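Extended Data, panel c. Modelled sequence:
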Amino acid sequence: MRTGLRKVMARALSLFTTNSSPKDLTWQSIPAITEADLQEIRQFFRRKKFFIFGHARSGTTLLARLIRVHPSVHCNWQAHFFTRQPFIHALVSDPNIHEWLTRRSNRWNQGRDPSALLLRINCDFFLEREAAQLGKEIVGDKSPNNLVHGEAVLRMASIYPDASLIFIVRDGRDAVLSHRFQTFIDNPQHLNQEDRAILEQFIAHPEPFLRGERSIFTSQGLQAAAQSWVENVTETHRLGKEIYGARYYALRFEDLIRQPWEVMQSLWLFLGADLSLPGLAEALENERTRNPDADWQNQKASAISQSLQKGKSGSWRQLFTSEDRQAFLRIAGATLEEWGYPID
């Protein structure tokens, strides 16, 4: 790993150590994977790798579906190697495992800690197994990173300093709104008493909520959601640029919706895929018009899901109350403006 990258990661790690449990800190002590390791790994796992991060409900699934339309590119989702506990690093966090890996009498480890190498091999196998079956040469995973924000970039860099990172951003108001409805539909059992009361009132009398007269959020819940969105966007984008440089690509969900062909051409070119293959535009359009996530939510809870059109930009204008708008802007106004989103 380059000296500059080591310094960036060491400086950035201080952002996260205060919120991590002592046991989980063991991943930071794993020696970084070396260039010699990477050269050896590529003899067995030769495909190019990429990872898609983004806040929940920011279009990561849509992007994964579209990116794998290309005959050379495969993407699946929710491996959560670096984005959700337990992380892939848990495979070597047990002291007994670490002792076995680094035992001096173990001549196979070549006298050093092979933990990062072991983690990389596990990830590579899962990624390349599917890609090989499909005959594709570029492979990646999409996993929302809003549970750990920038820490996901650091964890990824400790194992994949040579991969590419794609980060998709969506207007935070639409993202938290969509996430709220997703929780109502998929995880109502996780709601507290106040949130459950809002859900029951919405189902019984949705009209005031849909006109922005009543909030679907609690005040505390909206503030926490806005702060989480800001931290995710700010930390991921900063560390992505600092660590991955030319192998980092950031895009907006709204641009993907408005100009799918132009955005995907740029992304495929970024990944090194051939743009001259015939039928790409037609295949992309066919996939873009599908919406399996919306179909699933309509089937599971149509009374709720039909209130929010999937993939639409600006739904917050209809459903946010004036108090919701002001509260979100107080926390996230500067970040919204930085990414070109209206704050009026």
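Residues 219-244 form the longest helix (26 residues). This feature is highlighted in the accompanying rendering.
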